[in-house]
Amino acid sequence: VQLVESGGGLVQPGGSLRLSCATSGFTFRSYVMAWVRQAPGKGREWIATVSRSGTTNYADSGKGRFTISRDGAKSTVYLQMTSVKSEDTAVYYCYARHVIYDTEYWGKGTLVTVSS
Fold first, then answer.
1. pLDDT in tens, 46-73
2. pLDDT band for position 102 (50/70/90)?
3. Among residues 35, 100, 105, 103, which one has the least CA distance to residue 69?
4. Predicted pLDDT at 19
5. By CB neighbour count within 10 A (0-12 exposed, 13-18 middle, 19+ buried), where does 57 fall?
6. What is the number of other CB atoms lying within 10 angstroms of the CB of residue 80?
7. Where do the DSSP E strands lie in the chain?
8. Rounded to an integer, what distance in angstroms lies between the CA atom of residue 92 and that of residue 8?
């Protein structure tokens, strides 16, 4: 099983960034996918979830600025980040959970740094 995040980097406040999470080794369509972040010195914070059918939910911190989506053909989940703020600086992790068996998988994360 692999969840490989990419797309992180340095971005200026107010800018945009798209994170990708390419997955393999499990049945992507059977899993709810999410993005979770961890800022320096803080615990993990759930950001957004996309269901198998594409229904999305967002934490207040990302609502209106972030968009989560999934591509079943590519077994990939995305997080489009816009109007980023310094407080969005964190390691962003991809997360998968089976809808019935609660099996969980995590990626290793990609660092997003928001700074001028």
1. 999 999 999 999 999 999 999 999 999 9
2. confident
3. 35
4. 98
5. middle
6. 14
7. 2-6, 9-11, 17-24, 31-38, 44-50, 56-58, 66-71, 76-81, 90-98, 104-106, 110-114
8. 8
